[in-house]
Predict the structure.
Amino acid sequence: MGGNVTLSLDNPVYPPNAASVSSAMDTIVEQNAFVSSGGDIVAKKAARIVDRTVEDIEI
């Protein structure tokens, strides 16, 4: 339906291997591996690693 789907991974391999990431994304699309409320996943758009640091503050 023209929307985007985001898949998130805990603890991705770092540094990333672009060829492996692209291949995994191709496999997800080819095998229709995930269900989306917007329909089938038909293409890959982008991949990125977002790093978020959480530091507890003792109070």
